Amino acid sequence: MRIDDLAVVIPAQQGGNDLIRNALAKFGSDETPLLTWKIRQLKHVVDSNHIYVSSYSEEVKALALTEGVNVHHRSKDLASESQGPFGDVIVDVIRDIPHKHVAWVSAVCPLMDERDYMLAFQCYFEIFGSGEYDSLMAVNRIYDYLWSDVQPLNYNCDSQQPRRLGLSPTYKVTNGLFMREREAILRERYYVGKKPYKFQVSKLSGLDINAQEDLEAVEALSALHQKQRCERDRVVFLDFDGVIFDSVVEAYAIALLTTQRIKRLDELDLSSEHSRRFMAQRYLIGPAWNYHYLLKSIDDGNDECFTDYLPSEPGASAKDFQAAFFATRQVIRNNFWQEWLALNRMYDGAEKFVEYINNSQNIVIVTTKDKTTVNALLQNHGLARDLEIFDAKTFEEYGGKANFMDDYIKRNHIREALFVDDSEQHLEKCSWVERLKVMQAKWGYVSHETREDNMLEVFNSIEGVLYG
């Protein structure tokens, strides 16, 4: 599935003096029409011949043709979205679009920009066909106390009121973007399915212009938005395990379950001498089959010489162990998801990483962990937006983190980059990557002799890259 299969549809109204969803409203210091602004953003992401402006207005259509994109001639009786059932408007537009997938984009969300669209389109094509999701919509994730006319909707309004981050998240649909397969849209007469993926965007990207005061607010914030855009030639790459989260307890639990040393998670004894010895050697572990030899070295009383037990390639028993290890992990994940997540523990002070992620679009996770787990763990600790996560699939595709980061830096014209990882080996392999500084998280999986808390130093370096 490719972006060539995608059509981007911009339904555009001329509007009136009240500015309600007026695609021709002037925006910015050069008074560019909102529609022109949106078309130019999208042309950075898809070819012009994949962009369709749907309108009854001759002025709107003339502007679209000037920008070199396609025009869809809206029928007069459906000239605005308020005329007739909304499903009729959608079908009238979509049935004439010759692409398998459709992105329905609002012209009146000017601060949702090309980077947002690029990430959303990539995300859509990753999730489509998985069976878990059937569409995508742009949202703001909200931790707020919500009321109907008569009662609270998502919390108990009493002395036991939860902290804001203790609330279950709610989601505000921004109206900036909807994506779905064309045939499904035509069949159900709507661009959101029963299982939409909630693509989280920043609050700025979610701003929607419906009235004059909205336009004034967006224009006032556009300078901040432009500042963030200018900062996007910088990026911070973060490893996950050993930097933000410690997964050694999870690995220990799965290893013991795999070898039937325990039968249930609640039998795990983290105060035992066996646990201490296992965790002391965690920094030497690479692939999961290494745990087979670590357990053997502990059994033989030679774990201080663990490296002597660790061959360069796994034997037959180690291969069998690794297969059983992953199968055991999958069973636990499938049946005890929350308990399994709890085995992965955030390092003390690492909440600051989530704060950076929420406040900057310039942070990327590069990990050998899977994307689903990374997202779930970060969301449990306050992640409030969609995040670029390049996981084990990317690692395999590129043959390592260094190759991926080199490609990312060149492809996105990055001027300054920082990579934070606990593995000295990973950092050394990045020495050839241009414009990339590296920094070791010495609180992670490192030897006892070299371990130290340099988290504040790392935070200062991150801020130096993000904010200059």
Describe this structure in words.
The protein is α/β, with parallel strands linked by helices. It folds into 3 domains: 3-210, Spore Coat Polysaccharide Biosynthesis Protein SpsA, Chain A (Alpha-Beta Complex), CATH 3.90.550.10; 235-245 and 344-467, HAD superfamily/HAD-like (Rossmann fold, 3-Layer(aba) Sandwich); 248-335, no CATH class. It has 18 helices and 16 strands. It has helices at 34-42, 58-66, 86-94, 114-127, 182-188, 212-230, 248-258, 273-280, 290-299, 306-309, 316-335, 337-342, 351-359, 371-380, 392-398, 401-411, 424-428, 455-467; strands at 6-11, 26-27, 32-33, 51-55, 70-73, 101-105, 135-142, 170-181, 196-200, 234-238, 245-246, 345-346, 363-366, 388-390, 416-421, 436-440. The strands form 4 sheets. Strands 5-4-1-6-8-7-9 form a 7-stranded mixed beta sheet. Strands 14-13-10-15-16 form a 5-stranded parallel beta sheet, with helices on both faces. Helix 7 (248-258) packs across helix 11. The protein is elongated, with a radius of gyration of 26 Å. The two termini are 39 Å apart.
Structure summary:
Helix 9 (290-299) crosses helix 11. This protein is α/β, with parallel strands linked by helices. The strands form four sheets. A seven-stranded mixed β-sheet has the order 5-4-1-6-8-7-9. A five-stranded parallel β-sheet has the order 14-13-10-15-16, sandwiched between helices.
